[in-house]
Amino acid sequence: MCGLAGFLVPIGRETALSISESMTARLSHRGPDSSGNHLEALGQDFHLSLVHTLLRIIGKPGEGAQPFRVPEGILVFNGAIYNFQELKNHLSQQGRDFKTSTDTEVLAHGLALEGIPFLQRVRGMFAFAFWNNRRQILQLGRDPFGVKPLYLARLERGICFASEYKAILPHLDNATMDTPAINDYLKWRYTPGSHTLVSEIVKVAPGTVLEFDFRTNRLESLPYFRLNKPDQAPSPSEVFDLIKQAVARRGVADVGVAALLSGGIDSSIICDLLQSSVGNLETYTLSFSDESMNEAEHARAISHSIGVRNQIIPNTDYSWEQLERLAYHLDDPLGDPIIIALDKIFSFIKGQYRVIVTGEGADEIFSGYVHHRIMAVLEKAPRSMGVLGGSLMNRVPHEVLRQLFPYAARLHSNDYSEALRRVTSYTTKRTLASFLEIFSVFDESTLLHGAQTSLTNWGNYENTLEGLRAWDRQNWLCDSQLFKIDKIAMASSIEAREPFVDQDLIGAVSRLPSSAHFNFRQDKPILRAAVKGRLRIPPLRLSKRKSSFFQPLSDPGLSRLLTTCRAFIDEQRDFLAHFIAPVPLEHARSQDLVTVLDQKRLFVLVMLGLWEKKVFRLRGTGTPFGR
């Protein structure tokens, strides 16, 4: 919906105005309709700045301008409150008077009247900064699952914040790289947890409000969210009703709403239900030249069965400039080539629609990943089965293995010894690490420094599978999947909405036992049972198995880009050599990138190098907070 930024620091007015204008410019793509800034002197030497750029989604034309003022304070807000009409009625009964039809005003009055507890009533995605002028504190908050980003830099005296940290970095003179976070990125392809690749900048945690008192220079973290689980596990029909409600809520807008349709079960369900909710739905599908990945015709058939329009977008015309632009918009790097395809989709849609509904979250909530299924098997298998399985599987024809373990086969299509190691490792932790890590922690010769995030950081769960699923919800979903959708969609001034990332739905599904998530016949059995017989999509179409959605660098159209990537590794060799050992670094730039894993490693290094060039070099280029 928007971009927000600001600070509360002891600087002069002219310096404060200069930094505010710079922040506004850095976030203009997130809110091209208008911008606003509240600048206020506090105490003897502090200045408060609240910056906002607007992409109008909810509200009549001319409404929604921010910062938004209520008697108790001032709000800047990014996101969407889906149940804002219900909340508006609730607040009206408490005597609050409303002057607009926006969700912004509802959030402002709710925070003013009820404070942080009001957020427990909210159903939506959001990041906000609220200056409470009666308590003289600044509150920074983020939605329960981290759909919307919010970054914070703690200064010697004061704080600054922004939807994207490229708005902060130019004003930090002495910013440094966070080496453990960089090694986390090299392991996982993204940066999990609260850290970023810049030591001085952190993420505001999902489901948390930070309160800053400038008089005492105290910053307090106040978690407000706890997942509400029903007393009883839901039936399939109850799960379906929650999905239907979540989709209908994501259709709430005063502008046109469209959807992505990949052809898989997740997006197909969403498009079917969204068509019933908003009507006359437009859908978009990306086609790939690799027929093993191309689901365009399947998506077209789905669109016909549910009565929606469908545009197929060819995934062609790659350029190095596209990668450089993506690196800038992402802030922290993301080492997943699929960002190229996603950027292609949103760039195509730009100017046609402002809201796009997507299927992110279904795999994390309904256990759709291959490592979930493998872990379910390993949890039940005796330890000795790993040794026996490895011996037997070495004698299985490669074509059979390709059918049994398609993802492992794609990772190492010409070297099944590594694929077998991944499937038949002796311990569950090692199996998971070898599946999920790009530069494996078990290969001590690869990374030159230690990482700070481990698969053992799970807390107390009833079994390893539950811990893994929690890891994916709390880290992979938030810091990779939702992160990339927000940054790439907003680069094209589009708001993405994800119905499966719904706290009522997630709370209900979390009541189901781990055993309900898996069987050997199909993936996502809970989701499939919930929608069975309740959609217009033919059952045969819905029974299609999950396909891996990734962008192979071996695509013929990417050959020129691949050559540029290798040359860029040479250009950034001195920087990358601080983190990666010589042998894997040399291999990444070689011509012999046979496997998908090799290609992923190359892309991870390229995006890290581009982060250093396009993002980190912004440090200290603007007016510093110290003046």
Content of β-strand: 15-25%
Q: On the 0-100 scale, what is the average pLDDT?
A: 87
Number of strands: 17
Question: Helical stretch count?
Answer: 24
Q: Give me the CATH architecture of the domain at 2-178 and 192-226, please.
A: 4-Layer Sandwich
Assigned CATH superfamily of the domain at 2-178 and 192-226: Aminohydrolase, N-terminal nucleophile (Ntn) domain
Radius of gyration: 24 Å
The neighbouring-strand order within the major sheet is 2-3-1-9-8-10
Detail the poorly predicted runs.
406-417
Distance between the first and last residues' Cα: 32 Å
The outline comes out as globular
**Helix/strand/pairing category:** alpha+beta
CATH class of the domain at 2-178 and 192-226: Alpha Beta
The CATH topology of the domain at 2-178 and 192-226 is given as: Glutamine Phosphoribosylpyrophosphate, subunit 1, domain 1
Amount of helix: 40-55%
Please give the largest β-sheet. 6 strands, antiparallel
Task: List the keywords.
single chain; 627 residues; alpha+beta; Glutamine Phosphoribosylpyrophosphate, subunit 1, domain 1; six-stranded antiparallel sheet; 24 helices; 16% strand; globular
